[in-house]
């Protein structure tokens, strides 16, 4: 229950202040998933998934996909997770490729 509350609290803060696409992260026991979502249209623009060991490379790949489509600024939605570990590696990989958030 607390996980859902944290996720909704984070997401509502993001939607209230920004009209940029949202980069959201989900992690399971073995994999990490990233999506760039356009909340105005309600569609997923790009997605990527990879094993947790390759989190930085997955972030770089998602950034490359978005930069090809002229999307250079997004809002980072960490969901219910702390900005630590694989979530941080994923975000740093996306920043290294030039995605701004």
From TrEMBL:
<keyword id="KW-0699">rRNA-binding</keyword>
<keyword id="KW-0689">Ribosomal protein</keyword>
<dbReference type="GO" id="GO:0005737">
    <property type="term" value="C:cytoplasm"/>
</dbReference>
<dbReference type="GO" id="GO:0008097">
    <property type="term" value="F:5S rRNA binding"/>
</dbReference>
<comment type="function">
    <text>This is one of the proteins that bind and probably mediate the attachment of the 5S RNA into the large ribosomal subunit, where it forms part of the central protuberance.</text>
</comment>
<keyword id="KW-0694">RNA-binding</keyword>
<dbReference type="InterPro" id="IPR005484">
    <property type="entry name" value="Ribosomal_uL18_bac/plant/anim"/>
</dbReference>
<dbReference type="InterPro" id="IPR004389">
    <property type="entry name" value="Ribosomal_uL18_bac-type"/>
</dbReference>
<dbReference type="GO" id="GO:0003735">
    <property type="term" value="F:structural constituent of ribosome"/>
</dbReference>
<keyword id="KW-0687">Ribonucleoprotein</keyword>
<protein>
    <recommendedName>
        <fullName>Large ribosomal subunit protein uL18</fullName>
    </recommendedName>
</protein>
<comment type="subunit">
    <text>Part of the 50S ribosomal subunit; part of the 5S rRNA/L5/L18/L25 subcomplex. Contacts the 5S and 23S rRNAs.</text>
</comment>
<dbReference type="GO" id="GO:0005840">
    <property type="term" value="C:ribosome"/>
</dbReference>
<comment type="similarity">
    <text>Belongs to the universal ribosomal protein uL18 family.</text>
</comment>
<dbReference type="GO" id="GO:1990904">
    <property type="term" value="C:ribonucleoprotein complex"/>
</dbReference>
<dbReference type="GO" id="GO:0006412">
    <property type="term" value="P:translation"/>
</dbReference>
<dbReference type="Pfam" id="PF00861">
    <property type="entry name" value="Ribosomal_L18p"/>
</dbReference>
<dbReference type="InterPro" id="IPR057268">
    <property type="entry name" value="Ribosomal_L18"/>
</dbReference>
